[in-house]
Amino acid sequence: MNIFRLAGDLTHLISILVLLLKIYATKSCSGISLKTQELYALVFLARYLDLFTDFVSVYNTVMKLVFIGSSLAIVWCMRMHRIVKRSYNRELDTFRHYFLVAGSFVLALVVHEKFTLQEIFWAFSIYLEAVAILPQLVLLQRSGNVDNLTGQYVFFLGAYRAFYILNWIYRYFTEQRFGRWISWISGLVQTALYADFFYYYFMSWKNNAKLQLPA
To answer: What family name appears in the similarity comment (predicted)?
Structure first.
């Protein structure tokens, strides 16, 4: 554990809390991509197959359970909650996310660190997480205006990955034999996807204006 890892975990947790707050307070999921949420649920389920077999720490186990539980709860609300599901922008959320799932799985079969079930699913989760935000970004571009809570959710989600890149850099220089290059490359790709959103987010903050993305 280091300050960058902790900051990454906290910003990731904040992003989830912001999204849950939006859904709970407004009884609406407008502007949120169900397909991105489904991808994140799949990411956590695939990554944490070791939940009950490889105990690291109480903190580690609790965070895994929180990420799995919250992602499944969000998907359930958007699909099943009788009020929340009415606000889902189905006509805007049309990204074919199953291509991302298939592509990530094929890549994991070809490029992995060890040919075991757990390592392949770990690599799959890393590749899928790198592109899971795409349906959300496409939806926001199509809708144009972005409400405050949705904008904060995406911002903190991007900040989490940026902090994790700093964590990997720190660990590379302070730990012997640390080198998960799959995480590094995928993390850089994921952070790059947020670049355009970050620009418009900071511009709206600087000008004290409503966040708008170009169509």
So the answer is: Belongs to the ERD2 family.
Q: Residue 212 falls within a domain, yes or no? A: no
* Residue 14 identity: I
For the chain, how big is the Rg over CA atoms in Å?
Answer: 17
What's the whole-number mean pLDDT along residues 123-130?
95
70-89 residues labelled b (16+ CB within 10 A) or e (exposed): bbbebbebbeeeeebeebbb
Q: Does residue 139 sit in helix, strand or coil?
A: helix
Cα 152–192–130 angle (5° rounding)?
Answer: 85
What residues make up the domain containing 55?
3-206
71-93 confidence digits (pLDDT tens)? 999 999 999 999 999 999 899 99
Q: Per the domain annotation, does 59 fall within a domain?
A: yes
The answer to whether residue 179 scores a pLDDT higher than 70 is no
Number of domains into which the chain is organized: 1
pTM as predicted:
0.91
